[in-house]
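Order emerges. For instance:

***
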Amino acid sequence: MKIQAKNEAEKVASSFLMAFGANDFAGARAYMHRDMTWSVMSRGVPGAGEHKGPDAIFEVITPIREKFGPNSPVITPRCVVSNDRTVVLEFHGGGNLLDGRAYDNNYVMIIEVEAGKIIALREYMDSFYVHNLFADCD
């Protein structure tokens, strides 16, 4: 599914997600406010908690992404709902880890946009699955 943005907030959120999903962190960074917060709402998973600012966010995300094989994870949007400021995105993350195990998880992100930049992102996932999968990676 390609996201057909209905407003500026959806355009920013979907452009960010597509860049991020393609491991284009420089492209994703262009949509991030300097004080953006990324909150992984699950406990007991890599990256859990709140992270503030693009540098701190990518400091947490980069080692997680390094556990994935080439061209993984693949992000597939499923549903988008929004108003002028807040975008709710449901998507699937799939692919393989470096050790060859499959990755198959569903996500919801709530993204808040102001003046063309993401100011907050709250990420929800199947934390039980992620906890068990990544427990064997270290």
Observations:
- The helical segments are 8-21, 25-29, 54-65, 127-135.
